[in-house]
Amino acid sequence: MLSTSLKATGREFAYPPELIPNPVIWHNYVTVVEAVPFGLWFRNTMVITLSALAGTVITASMAGFALARLRFREREAWLLLVISTMMLPGVVTLIPRFLIFKSLKWMDTYLPLVVPAWCGGGAFNVFLFRQFFASIPPEFDEAARMDGASSFLIFTRIIMPLSRPVLATVAIFSFLDNWNAFMEPLIYISTREKFTLAIGLNAFRGRYSTYYALLMAASAITVVPIIVLFFFTQRYFIQGITITGLAGR
Amino acid sequence: MTAGLLRTVAGRRGVRSREHVEAYVFLLPWILGFLAWTLGPMLTSAGLAFTDYQILLAPKWVALENFRHMLEDELFVKALGNTAFYTFIGVPLQITVALVAAMALNRQVRGVSIYRTAFYLPSLTPAVANAMMWLWLLNPEFGLANALLRAVGLPPQRWFMDVKLAKPSMIIMSLWGIGGQMIIFLAGLQGIPDLYYEAARVDGARNWHMLRHITVPLLSPSIFFNAVVSIIGSFQVFTTAFVATGGGPQNATLFYVLYLYRNGFQYFKMGYASALAWVLFVIILGFTLLQFRVGRYWVYYEVE
Q: Which of A25, A28, A90, B90 could form a disulfide with A217 if both were Cys (CB 3.0 to 4.6 A apart)?
């Protein structure tokens, strides 16, 4: 993809295909950024992604904390409910969600993309937090509770500081989900200036469908932040899988 | 003494009820989200499935008409068939390739982490960008795939533009995203003690036997997990088809959710789209439950 993105228009169809472009056209990136508001779309995507990420981390960790470390009678029932919603295919709620957001006059705003993240941040993330919190020895909060600490204090001062790995994992997964989201922005955002990178890229493709070098340059713009993120946070990906015991062990 | 005991119990009760209230404060955002964005919408869509609702006019009760219509809706049958093909050919293939890749990369060789990264990264990148790249690779005139075919003397193909090859092309493209499954297999493989293999080797077992009698049984929980999650995901394939083919050629890649999307957001048939959503939900639920049932016979959990 990177190779093609640097090829001269016309040269991308050279046969046999060239792995290293000749000549190298860095200017393709400039052309792309000038042709469509990629800078703006980049910023939009970042705003949505970070707002949703904050909501997910805060509200999912709260729910996970209650389910892992607070004693109340209906706890098992709530946990079961969280786990069963994990299995729910998103398509079932697609149409009514759209109707709700429409009646709330949230169409063509970022609210449908961000507000749900502030409401629990997804069952899977709640479950990730709950699994990690449950593995912290109970002595930590029992001692604090003896001293009369509230659950809020135990959550913010004891549990959260011990939970950096799971915080990082959930933050990364949430970043990826929102950065790569396609169907929701496609349904809810209609103004070009409000587009995210994913739907902007798709619109760009419609207009420049034969300029493969430009298409690849545009694609690279959406992919590179993910690759950079991955290289800085690699170990948390494996950790995430270990924490949940996803492998079934 | 009794009084003291009572006070302790009361004290405990006090702590408990305070914890009880606090627990619900912590759960509140999730519960609100569950009611507003999950349970409410599910009930609404269950109701809408029995109506004719074109957005501009109020929903009209039509009882089972939507479901009856599906039986004679050729595109529905086509979309269901396409999705079944994509899922039942694609998922076993994905799992096999992911397992082979995980076994190949489960070694302590220098540089192996670079290969792991190379396999995992594509599963993280946006589906639109992936689809775009595959459009280029499988381009009938200039794509790399056809260049390779020509190089070994085979006739070039039309891939996404060929009615017969479009679905297989989508499946090939889906193999690009197996990194997540591979990582789960890698984690599973690393949990199998070397001891088992050493013992088997002493007994003169061949590689194939070790794969058949050690690796696969001990990895069965990971295989099961990947199968369940991949089938749920595969039934809902949307973005890649939307971007790469738009459902064509001749509806060969019209997948279920793509058809649902068209009904809901292009033709604004909200009632019919809701009915479609529920049918898909029941299908997915059915397959998931079936897998759990069948899983009892082949998934092996080590007793701790």
A: A28
